[in-house]
Write a structure and sequence with these properties.
Distance between the termini: 28 Å
Number of helices: 14
Structural class: mainly alpha
Shape: globular
Strand content: under 5%
Helix content: over 70%
Number of strands: 0
Order of helices and strands: HHHHHHHHHHHHHH
């Protein structure tokens, strides 16, 4: 059994926090809450970009480390395991969509409030958020666009791993060219570059490369270079189209290297080690529930403060962020527990 690389869990938790702070900041701005940055934006990129890049690299790298090239006879087992890791909590949350269909049937006489009922297939397979990001109205409730993106990449993984193993330099060069061409071909839609397939595949496969060189990242000079790159991307204003995803990706690569090195010292503290391991297990469920909880909790907080006739300051919003984060973790833990129980129950019945 391979030893768990705990430093990667630190990166997972960090990316998870970036997702929460980014969406909390976005919701705060839309509701007129006087919140400061909250790790939402820098002069060049947003932290949602950094979080997704790190998550994609971790997903690709961990798969490559565990499976490498998957033999034809093992493909079915691989896809079943990936489905079990993604769909149970996602489907549990999307019971809400079924309840919404019933509510619209009762109130409007038509349950299909988002149009063609065939769109429900997008929700079943996790592509509803991704499709909505690209401009299609869907029966979307939870999970953001990332669920569809990761399903897409898992489906491609056997092919990508095989090509990378045989010709890594050619493959990564081709992916970089494909990524760069997007800034020319889609000049009018640069805001969507981060979700296009060429971008997702590049970041996923960067995980292959980084995981092949993890030992190099435990060296101080390499980590220092990564930290410098991250700081420059974060604080030096670099105008141009590279602000659309590119600089956020570079910042994420620098941060990945720097944090991977520094994590070994953080984990020397027993309490930090324990906390990171427990929270890291909830990262996917946090990803599923965070946006919905952020939206609902802000509405709730603001209504309570309005009734109490209390205004909200930047520090008050900061406190709201921490209360929201604790709520997200609690709901994610509950979802993880319930989905694990449901999966065990289903597996037990199949064996019986």
């Amino acid at each position: 059994m391979e030893k768990r690389i705990k430093e990667l869990d630190v990166l997972r938790v960090l990316a998870m926090l970036f997702v929460v702070t980014f969406h909390f900041g976005c919701e705060s701005v839309s509701r007129g809450i006087p919140a400061f940055n909250f790790l939402r934006l820098t002069v060049n990129y947003d932290f949602g970009n950094v979080a997704v890049t790190i998550f994609l690299m971790l997903s690709g790298g961990l798969l490559y480390k565990k499976y490498g090239i998957i033999p034809q006879k093992s493909l079915k087992e691989f896809f079943i395991k990936r489905a079990k890791s993604i769909y149970p909590p996602f489907w549990i949350l999307n019971v809400y969509v079924l309840l919404s269909l019933v509510r619209h049937l009762v109130s409007d006489g038509n349950p299909f409030y988002a149009g063609n009922p065939a769109k429900l297939l997008l929700t079943v397979f996790g592509f509803d958020g991704y499709a909505q990001t690209l401009g299609f109205e869907t029966y979307f409730f939870c999970g953001e666009w990332f669920v569809g993106a990761i399903v897409f990449l898992y489906l491609l993984y056997p092919l990508l791993a095989k090509i990378y193993k045989r010709m890594p330099v050619v493959m990564m060069s081709a992916l970089l060219v494909g990524y760069g061409l997007q800034f020319v071909l889609f000049k009018d839609h640069l805001g969507l570059v981060s979700v296009y397939p060429a971008t997702l595949i590049l970041k996923f496969c960067l995980g292959f490369f980084f995981f092949e060189h993890l030992d190099s990242f435990k060296k101080m000079p390499v980590a220092l270079v990564g930290l410098i790159v991250f700081v420059l991307c974060s604080f030096v204003d670099i105008p141009g189209v590279v602000n659309y995803d590119c600089l956020g990706t570079v910042a994420a690569l620098g941060l990945f290297v720097a944090v991977f090195y520094g994590a070994q010292y953080l984990l020397n503290a027993a309490i930090a080690d324990t906390l990171v391991q427990k929270v890291a297990k909830l990262s996917y469920c946090v990803f599923l529930v965070q946006h919905v909880i952020i939206s609902w909790s802000q509405i709730g907080f603001l209504k309570i403060l309005e009734k109490l006739q209390i205004g909200i300051s930047s520090w008050g919003a900061f406190g709201m962020l921490w209360m929201t984060l604790l709520l997200i973790l609690a709901v994610a833990w509950l979802l993880n527990t319930v989905s694990g129980w449901a999966l065990r129950l289903f597996s037990g019945r199949r064996k019986a």
